[in-house]
């Protein structure tokens, strides 16, 4: 009852519920996963499943600096994907397809530009609007852990439910659609692992409609801020699509579930 | 991701750079160019050439490089095949005679299939017209470089005319001292560098088309390898540019 009232404290459970304090778990979580990340670098493998069927995978390397994010994808040693997100501008090049997508992410697109930046590295809860929402969320016992429920207020208002272990480790984040309509995206976090750059989940899964994208993180480091290597420009022979082109929408819908008609009905 | 499916262009992309683009730039009469040209001619003029490949790519963000070993079979006029030695590594076949372009992904237990015409144009040209690449131009200049801590004689090739999608690509190659065949190829862009080591070249006097067969077990599921279908499904108007 106390937890439901937002105090976030629950007694030691004799029936398998969480022990300790929900507030403490939340504080531990914020301490570990909401530290400002000035710059980072990482590598791993990303895979896509759609309707339970594998649709391929690739190795990825990424780097972030302030609000900028650059991702390079390889199949074997071959560069297959370039992506950058600088400010509100998104650029994605699928080299084997001689295809690029480019444009500005608009506020009405999903969580908007800031939300997309968070979704791209959903282990970094340091952005002010994310951290504040978690700090002000209500905490309740959830299985053997805790659940923080609240509202992300960005370009839109999106309810969320963040499940934590008793130790304050992230397990699952469900973000609702604007105005609470269904589930926009569900993010599952693997067990935490100590990397050179700090503690991060071993894996992250984004579930959106029938598409599930999984990232297994091999390496994570926090180098000193430095110049991000900008990606090569698109080849003049490539097909370049703007983000609002229906074909771009089709690709994003196919690969990431972005723009899927009809969201999951479950509440976050 | 689908880029991996559509990557058939890519696994063999190194071959494009190392065997297609590079000799394509070969023209001119100085000794350096002749030596480089002769090295590649032996490969492209053989009925069949096979080699082991070790590929190392640097991390554009300062991390450890990635490495992959594999094998390549080149049947000029007929096709080529690349097979990664990595567990779950992929295999690519371009077979002009059978009109096939195949990508086998063991980890997905899937063979992605497309018509030959969907193979990258540069690879198709390598297969169909290998002699064309032996007439191309390359401003080769002798230059020694350190490779794995040891200085090796080689040739720096100006990459501006390579025609690859990566701009400002710089290429360097060295020949095997014993055989004269291509040994090291370095391809550097402003963001990363790829090193390819060719070893154990085997130049056969007769082509074995069976070497173009995928190693996928019988009954492996198949899927189309045509990412442009996704665009067509998406509908919409013309290109943005």
Structural account:
The complex is a heterodimer of chains A (268) and B (241). In chain A, 15% of the residues lie in helices and 44% in strands. Chain A has 268 residues and is mostly beta strands. In chain A, β5 (89-94) and β6 (99-104) form a beta hairpin. Chain A has helices at residues 22-33, 112-120, 128-135, 246-256, and strands at residues 39-50, 53-65, 68-75, 78-86, 89-94, 99-104, 138-142, 145-153, 157-164, 170-176, 183-189, 192-195, 198-201, 203-208, 211-221, 239-242. In chain A, 46% of the residues are buried. In chain A, strands 7-8-9-10-11-14-15-1-2-3-4-5-6-16 form a 14-stranded mixed sheet, covered by helices on one side. Chain A is globular. Chain A contains four helices and 16 strands. Chain B has 241 residues and is α+β, with helices and mostly antiparallel strands. Helices cover 22% and strands 35% of the residues of chain B. Chain B is built from seven helices and 14 strands. Chain B has helices at residues 2-5, 8-11, 13-24, 31-44, 121-128, 130-133, 228-234; strands at 48-57, 66-75, 79-84, 91-95, 100-105, 110-115, 140-142, 145-147, 150-152, 155-157, 170-175, 182-188, 193-204, 221-224. In chain B, the strands form two sheets. Chain B has a twelve-stranded mixed sheet with strand order 7-10-11-12-13-1-2-3-4-5-6-14, with helices on one face. In chain B, β11 and β12 form a beta hairpin. The longest helix of chain B has 14 residues, at 31-44. In chain B, 46% of the residues are buried. The chains are: A mainly beta (268), B alpha+beta (241). Chains A and B meet through β1, β2, β3, β4 and β15 of A and α1, α2, β1, β2 and α7 of B.
């Amino acid at each position: 009852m106390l937890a439901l009232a937002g105090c976030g404290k629950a007694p030691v459970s004799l029936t398998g519920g969480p022990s300790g304090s929900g507030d403490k778990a939340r504080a531990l979580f914020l301490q570990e996963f909401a530290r400002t990340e000035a710059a980072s670098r990482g590598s791993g493998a990303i895979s896509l499943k759609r309707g339970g069927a594998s649709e391929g995978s690739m190795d990825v390397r990424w780097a972030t600096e302030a609000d900028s994010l650059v991702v390079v994808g390889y199949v074997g040693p071959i560069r297959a994907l370039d992506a950058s997100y600088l400010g509100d501008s998104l650029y994605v090049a699928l080299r084997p397809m001689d295809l690029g997508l480019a444009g500005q992410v608009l506020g009405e697109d999903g969580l908007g530009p800031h939300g997309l930046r968070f979704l791209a590295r959903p282990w970094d809860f340091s952005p002010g609007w994310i951290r504040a929402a978690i700090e002000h969320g209500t905490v309740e016992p959830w299985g053997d852990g805790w659940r923080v429920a609240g509202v992300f207020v960005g370009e839109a208002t999106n309810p969320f439910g963040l499940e934590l272990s008793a130790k304050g480790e992230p397990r699952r984040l469900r973000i609702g659609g604007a105005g609470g309509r269904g589930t926009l995206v569900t993010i599952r976090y693997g067990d935490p692992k100590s990397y050179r750059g700090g503690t991060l989940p071993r894996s992250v899964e984004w579930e959106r409609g029938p598409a599930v994208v999984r990232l297994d993180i091999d390496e994570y480091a926090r180098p000193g801020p430095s110049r991000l290597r900008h990606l090569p420009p698109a080849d003049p022979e490539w097909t370049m699509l703007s983000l609002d082109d229906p074909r771009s929408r089709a690709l994003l819908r196919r690969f990431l579930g972005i723009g899927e008609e009809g969201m999951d009905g479950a509440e976050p | 991701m689908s880029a991996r499916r559509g990557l058939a262009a890519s696994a063999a992309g190194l071959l494009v750079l190392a065997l297609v683009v590079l000799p394509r730039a070969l023209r001119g009469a100085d000794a350096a160019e002749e030596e480089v040209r002769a090295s590649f001619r032996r490969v492209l003029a053989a009925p069949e050439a096979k080699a082991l490949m070790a590929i190392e790519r640097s991390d554009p963000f300062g991390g450890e490089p990635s490495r992959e070993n594999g094998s390549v079979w080149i049947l000029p006029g007929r096709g080529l095949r690349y097979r990664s030695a990595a567990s779950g590594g992929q295999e690519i076949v371009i077979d002009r005679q059978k009109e096939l372009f195949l990508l086998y992904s063991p980890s997905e237990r899937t063979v992605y299939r497309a018509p030959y015409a969907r193979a990258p144009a540069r690879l198709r040209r390598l297969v169909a017209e290998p002699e064309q690449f032996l007439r191309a131009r390359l401003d080769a200049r002798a230059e020694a470089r350190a490779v794995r801590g040891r200085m090796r004689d080689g040739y720096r090739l100006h990459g501006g005319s390579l025609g690859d999608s990566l701009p400002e690509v710089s290429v360097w190659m060295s020949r095997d001292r014993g055989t004269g065949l291509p040994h090291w190829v370095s391809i550097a862009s402003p963001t990363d560098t790829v090193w390819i080591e060719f070893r154990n070249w085997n130049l056969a006097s007769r082509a074995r088309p069976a070497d173009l067969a995928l190693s996928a077990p019988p009954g492996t599921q198949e899927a189309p390898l045509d990412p442009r279908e996704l665009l067509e499904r998406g509908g919409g108007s013309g290109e943005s540019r």
